[in-house]
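hey can u check if this looks right to u? its 283 residues, i copy pasted from the old doc so theres a chance i mangled smth
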Amino acid sequence: MGELKAGVESQRIEIGVEDESIDLRYLTAGESDDPPVVLLHGIGLDAASVSWKHTLPHLARERRVVAPDLPGHGESDGMGDYTNESYIDVLDGFLGALSIERASLVGISMGGAVALGHALDDQERTERLVLVDSYGLGRDAPWRPGGAALLNTPGFDGWLGAGLLNPALVASSLAGLTVNPPSEFVADVQRAVGPTAAGALGAWQRDEFRACGLRTCYLDRLDELDVPTLLIHGHEDPIFPIAWSERAAERIPDSEFVAFERCGHWPPREHPEKFERVVGDFL
């Protein structure tokens, strides 16, 4: 773990998910009587200290903010199953363990699908919702057939694990996911990604990348969402097309959409100042 910014604390909490007890590390800062803000990172090359390094202390000027390392990432334990549903259960357990009755949720990539799934199932406990280059807003993507085939290639897990622990390959991956990634960002990812991340990523992808399309898609439920929602998307995101968020904004009754130009899959790290301003104003 890299050095934390002033005022940010690293804490641990044990949660129960079905028949498992999971030890979670989370970052926290700020104090307020308002509902807290919960930040949810993505799958694989991510952790609380990566996506939310700058966002967390900025938002903590006005609110209490918490950001867990989801199981298999950062300094948290792993878990038996890595699925969208199991991560939603983790979020439910985390909120319960911290006695958080109502919160604003900010999720990036897979974390966006987790936040959205939770919000749809428990709208009364969700104050506001921010979806950043979010998964769960489309039924398929051009890379899905090849990705699904690759997941079943013999030796893929070993290759994936070695790649996530190789600094040069991590830097190359980030260069393909973002537009001119800052060196500090690359170093933060290299420092945060551990050996369990590959298992989490591979298992989650196998569950999601089906022969007929992507498993989790909330498109048909978006008109049910009665929560103020902000959608942010990098214009050059190579993973999830910006059209996903544009279409979602048309279907969610109370929503705003903001595109980030010259930005790939990681707006909070590619354009941190703009991201903090846009999200801070919305919250």
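The radius of gyration is 17 Å.
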